[in-house]
Amino acid sequence: MVVGDFANEVDVLVVGGGPGGYVAAIRAAQLGRDVTLVEKGALGGVCLNVGCIPSKALISAAELAERMKQAGNMGVVAENVSVDFLKMQEWKNGVVKQLTKGVGQLLKSNKITVVQGEAYFSGTDQVRVATEESSETYKFNDCIVATGSSSAELKALPFDGERIISSTEALNLQQVPKNMIVVGGGYIGLELGTAYAKLGSDVTILEGMDQLLPGTDPKVVRIITKNLKKQKVTFKTNAFVKKADVHGDSVTVTADVKGEEQTFTADVVLVSVGRHPNTSDLGLEQIGVELDDKGFVKVNEKMQTNVDHIYAIGDITGPPMLAHKASYEGKVAAEVIAGEASAVDYRAMPYVVFSDPEIAYTGLSEEEAKAEGYDVTSFRFPFPANGRALSMNAADGFVNVVADRETQRILGVQIVGPEASSLIAEAVMAIEFGATAEDIALTIHAHPTLPEVIQEAAEGILGHAIHTANR
Q1: What pTM was computed for the model?
Q2: Among 3-7, 410-414, 438-442, where is mean pLDDT lowest?
Q3: Stretch 219-227: mean pLDDT, rounded?
Q4: Taking residues 91-105, what's their average pLDDT?
Q5: Are 146 and 316 in contact (CB under 8 A)?
Q6: Per the annotation, does 147 bind a ligand?
Q7: Which terminus of the chain has fewer CB atoms gathered within 10 Å of its CB, N or C?
Q8: For 53-89, what is each residue's pLDDT tens digit?
Q9: Is 439 found in the same domain as 331?
């Protein structure tokens, strides 16, 4: 028999093995479905292999190096602190390898069939999976598409993989560049730019909007920009890149900065201006799946497309492009396929930026709450009034709690400060449960710990914060 003559009959087919796809596959298997997963690259997708995990590993290592160098005021003098960047990369790659191996074992233990290859929809109930050697057809009952996203490219700065690079190459450099230009001051550019600055690069960030982290509360961004100045990171806002010229081992970028043409030269240019959905080479439009004008798949609250039994999750369904959002949507899609009454609810979605200090927020900002018609009250508690933050020598920032004035129900929380990425979990739980400021205030928090800042902010909503002035 010639391979590909007959279609392989499968129950649930998942296309993409990232944090959306592999989670969806496991959840569907837990619910009794027979699952086949197709992945053209490494299991774990962008997040695990060339995104959130390796970037956070480098960020953590860079933070450790900086803290060692700056621990003198705590009485810890570390002389001749140096960075072995190749060894750091080796450690980072080991973290990734351990996690990708773990994903493979999880899929195997859930009896999920993994097929290596690139999928293309040849019908509303079948895909063609191609490898370098051959191709096979898989006919499915239900399908979950989770193909993720790729770094967006600027026409003026086409990627060459060496001097003009995306975040993928930035995570795999073999030496710390002496100078780095970051085009785009969103969370990816800010995270990687800050990490390389701590490792010794002279970093310049060029952002086209009027502030770094566009869309983020300006009060939060001010804390970040203050620390960037301390780290001697140069940043320009209202900076529109016009072109880049590569000359041997350097790149010169020409930009219009607030109406004035300026040039910047560096060893590498990291372009981080967003991501686009991986939907163009799947054949989705040919089988009638509706996409918007940016290539994102249109879905409903059950993650269903307009084509019966085809679902889409994660980055391909539109912003925000978050790994935990993809995982959440994957579980919902799997549960809907299994006949459960499941639907997405994004109100308590956490957002995190691993900047210095970290930023995390969930729910509604004060402006968003007012726009939705709430009579808003809020209270901001400063980290410098928290004993644990001071004892960690990391007291920059604040927590802001937003609540409905009449009911005191928590509507949103914004944090900028140490370990904000972990602290936000309490706020997410509070919003998910419909908690009030009194619920948090009456919950005993251990002392001295960072979570006390959330309790104190909640007490401030009630008018009786202890360690800062009440309004």
Answers
A1: 0.95
A2: 3-7
A3: 95
A4: 96
A5: yes
A6: yes
A7: N
A8: 999 999 999 999 999 988 888 999 988 889 999 999 9
A9: no
Summarised one tens digit per residue, pLDDT across range 396-405 is 999 999 999 9
Beta bridge partners of 113: 36
* 344 located within any domain: no
For 160, the 3-state DSSP assignment is coil
| pLDDT digit string, tens, across residues 347-395 | 999 999 999 999 999 999 999 999 999 999 999 999 999 999 999 999 9
pLDDT at 133: 84
Sign of the CA dihedral with 34 first, then 39, 43, and 48 last? negative
Catalytic residue among 276, 309, 445, 447: 447
Residue 184 in marked binding region: yes
On the 0-12 / 13-18 / 19+ scale of CB atoms within 10 A, 82 is: exposed
Query: What is the three-class DSSP state of 70?
Result: coil
107 appears as a binding residue in the annotation: no
CA atoms of 402 and 410, how far apart (whole Å): 6
Examine the domain organization and report whether 280 and 252 are in the same domain.
Answer: no
| Total domains, the chain | 3
Backbone angles phi, psi at 107, to 5 degrees: -65, -40
For 319-322, the CB contacts below 8 A with 24+ separation are 320/349, 320/351, 321/149, 321/275, 322/349, 322/351
Known binder of ligand: residue 106? no
Q: Residue 117 annotated as binding?
A: no
Active site residue 309: no
Domain residues for the domain of 374 are 351-462
Q: Would you say 40 and 118 are in contact if contact means Cβ atoms under 8 Å apart?
A: yes
- Clarify whether residues 457 and 312 are in a common domain: no
CATH code, 215: 3.50.50.60
The tokens describing 200, both together, are 């010794």
CA 225, 226, 231, 236 dihedral sign is: positive
Indicate whether 98 and 226 sit together in one domain: no
**Beta carbons of 287 and 121 less than 8 angstroms apart:** yes
Last residue of a domain, one of 296, 311, 337: 337
Q: From CA 415, how far away is CA 382, in angstroms rounded?
A: 10
